[in-house]
Amino acid sequence: MKTKIYLFGILAIVFASCKKEQPIVVTTDDYCAAVDTVTGIMVHDIFSPPVAARVYVYPNIAAYEIMAQNSAKYKSLQGQLHGLDSIPELEVNSGVNKNLAALIAHMEVSKLLIFSEEALEKYRDSLYAKWNDENKKEFDASKQYALKVVDRIKIWMGKDNYKQTRTYPKYSVHTDQPGRWQPTPPAYMDGVEPHWGEIRTLVMDSAAQFKPKAPHPFSTDKNSLFYKEAKETYDVGNMISKKLVEFENTKSTQIPEESAIATFWDCNPYATVTQGHMMFAKKKNTPDAHWINIAKIALKKTKSDFETAVFVTTKTSIGIFESFISCWHEKYRTNVIRPETYINLYIDENWRPQLQTPPFPEYTSGHSVASSCASVILTSIFGNNFSYTDDSEIPFGLPKRNFKSFKQAASEASISRLYGGIHYRAAIENGVVQGTNLGNFINSKINFFKTK
Known about the structure:
By secondary structure, this protein is mainly alpha-helical. It has helices at 2-20, 28-45, 49-68, 98-113, 117-134, 136-157, 162-165, 225-250, 257-264, 287-301, 306-334, 339-346, 366-382, 406-419, 425-445, and strands at residues 272-275, 278-281, 388-390, 401-403.
């Protein structure tokens, strides 16, 4: 009897040992869950769209560089992105699980870029405990290599001029210069990220490479193009307001389409709510988060593997990052007055847009630039007629919307800014051109794949 118990004990130990030696499985869902965790933290911390783009891009690049090591398919971005070089090489027989190391690197770089580190640490540590229990040797080897890559990425991203721009002066408001941007209600916030155009680009030659055509000259003359554009925004806003009144009076279940589009693509992390003497933030996604989620929807629909997930999110985040540098450079170069300010001063002092005006200059439309760029990139991967259901705004109480293509979604995101009353048509249309040209440039400039 004792002999049998002894043998069973030996077998149990052997079985447990064999089980621990099984490779740790890291899936596309695991990667997307990590991205979602970071997105949730950014919504809580209230990141501006440009800064959110930075939070997305560096962790994805870190993961991609690990995934590309010794890959038969994917090519490193070293030498292709400005300043990126000397990523530690991965030895073939190192015992590193690349998927695992890539996910570790993503979380560790993300932690360097957010405010609420504890929230990400809690998420990360639960995974670390799980992986350590599954296969300690593989986990340790993967983590050790991932942290080497993180150290290199940390040095590289530390040279992008972000820290320096934190010390630069705030945007100067000049109310005596008609046509120049001024803070808007209800919070009258300072201009957000006035020096973002000085952030190091990843692919563009400079922030001004895709400078759009000039906005219409400021004028209060009713025959001028500027006045006519402002009047269009005013008229469209009034038309939507009238439809909303009819909608409420008839108790219809179908909200006016223009209003639904404007609300769905609002993505304003700076929206504020006033209750009595209290004012607080109404937390929402940024446009970056919306398009990253669209990328995830495409990955899920195509049942893409882990490597494809890293590639898609990396390329999309690069496009979004470059978009906000290009757009913000133009915004603070031209300093165009917002429709709300212009209309209140020269057309109707009581007019209010459907959406809350974001706290930065008008030209060009950030949604138009970033959405167009992201759609060009995603189309290059998934094709022209990729239909999908967008559920990005469900967490914020909004229904799903269906799209026949990424281009259709980008077009809707762009025109939503006119429906919302926060942009003139020129900023939208020229922003689309700006973002489309940038997306095409990224597609042609960066080579993600090895030639056979």
